[in-house]
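Thread title: Can someone regenerate the structure for this chain?

I was given the following input by a collaborator and told the matching structure tokens would be attached. They weren't. Posting the sequence so someone can regenerate them.
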Amino acid sequence: MTASKALSQNLTPTQQRNRRWIVLSLLPTVAIFLLLSAFSVFNLIGLSLFKVSWQDGKAIYEFVGLSNYDHLFNKEEIYWAGVRNTLIFAVTVVTFQMLLGFTMALAVMRAGSVGRSLLTGVFLLPIVIPPIVIGTMWRLILGREFGLFNQILGFFGAGPVDWLGNPDIALGTIMFVDIWHWTPFVFLLMLAGLETLDQEVLEAARIDVRSFWQEMRHVVIPMMLPTIVITMVFRIILSFKVFDEVYLLTSGGPGTATEVVNFSIYRVFFTEDRVGDGAAMSLVTLIAVAMMIVLANLAIKIARRSGDKLEDTL
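Best answer:
Regenerated them for you:
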């Protein structure tokens, strides 16, 4: 007997009716979601097998089989430069965001009531600013001739730095902006996780530890592991979707220094008008992200089991 069947038998008739009603009420939404998702995926698969050209305002479809995939894996250097940059970007920004967000959440938890309200408001400010405003603001701050950063450097006698035009530092600059923008998201989830920890378990554990660092290492972090893993998964997935900062600040340049996967797909689809190639890129990216989500779900389950075992031990 499966766990779901055993649970169903333990429910009262009223609870079973409520459960059926919940399932039936969700079915239309789930069906619409699956229909739209399936249509989009099958449309991508179909487009990836054709070369699409335009004549007299009409789309002309020429079946090319797997030629678009052959071109993608053997000749599309810009896309793979975007993949490399996206991986570097994701690992770097998520690492810094997790460290900073957790540290900020700890600081707010240990602050007084007034300090907590003030710090929370300040820390959350970047995430409420619209992306177009962020792009405009940081272009002004990072401008070579009149940017605020270079004005400050000039005050100390240093020469101007081309933050967005130097291929050696352009990607790092985009990372800095993304860390500033999305660390509040991590902070918010970490703060919520810290506030839900069992205070009695923490008080009991503090008796056995001698320092703040031991408390963090042996008690708080293990209990926070499910929240940490879920937050990390969210940020990794969102970091692979980065587009706004690149589009608004550098447009993938200089060269391919800040090219990322989403901008490569956008460029191929809408700038170069290569619909078949763009569909192939999108499908390969979709499969990669789907695999990441599957692995992430496994990691979340393992983290939850570890957290439950620790609480049982304590």
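The longest helix spans residues 275-313.
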